[in-house]
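Summary of Year 1 activities. Much of the first year was spent building the evaluation harness for sequence design. The harness presents a backbone, in tokenized form, and records the residue chosen at every position. We chose the following record to illustrate the format because it has been used consistently in internal testing since the harness was completed.
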């Protein structure tokens, strides 16, 4: 049967890195694939900003595009240079999406991030 538990396992076992943040991009949840790709344990990143993954070499304009899409209620897909915990860079193909969580009212703004390591792609 398809239950909420199956839905939960799907997120937990997804091969794509998944994170859920608040409206300031502070991390609230990461799945195991996020930990595998980034090298961080969940308790090392929960409470920190998603910008901890930035390699600080992606042009500001890319982040401005990302945030202007989110602020208009749209999702955004693009490539960023991310940094693993050990300092190694990787190309992240990232999709961010504003989450509509009606039962939380106005205080319920969350973002969903999904990324994978596109370094080896050509
Ligand atoms: P910042 O000072 O955060 O921002 C750079 C520019 O982006 C600013 O000049 C500003 O124009 C714009 N900006 C930033 N925050 C806002 C805001 N709240 N509203 C409007 N405009 C804003 N970044 C990564 O590098 N790698 C990731 O994997 C990644 N995943 C993300 C996943 C999710 C779900 C979300 C919501 C964000 C993610 N980000 C990711 C973006 C991250 O939060 C930072 O904005 C980004 O890393 C740039 O950080 P910074 O400190 O260098 O610059």
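For this record, the design step produced the sequence shown next.
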């Amino acid at each position: 049967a398809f239950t909420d538990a199956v839905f939960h396992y799907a997120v937990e076992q997804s091969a794509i890195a998944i994170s859920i943040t608040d409206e300031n991009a502070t991390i609230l949840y990461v799945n195991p694939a996020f930990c595998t790709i980034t090298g961080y344990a969940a308790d090392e990143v929960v409470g920190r900003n998603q910008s901890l993954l930035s390699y600080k070499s992606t042009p500001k304009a890319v982040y401005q595009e990302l945030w202007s899409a989110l602020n208009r209620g749209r999702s955004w897909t693009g490539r960023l240079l991310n940094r693993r915990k050990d300092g190694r860079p990787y190309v992240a193909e990232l999709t961010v999406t504003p989450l509509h969580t009606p039962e939380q009212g106005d205080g319920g703004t969350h973002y969903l991030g999904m990324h994978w390591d596109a370094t080896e792609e050509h």
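The pocket of flavin-adenine dinucleotide is lined by residues 19, 21, 25, 49-51, 53-54, 60, 63-64, 67, 71, 80, 82, 92, 94, 96, 111, 113, 115 (CB under 6 Å). Quantitative recovery figures across the full test set are reported in Table 2.
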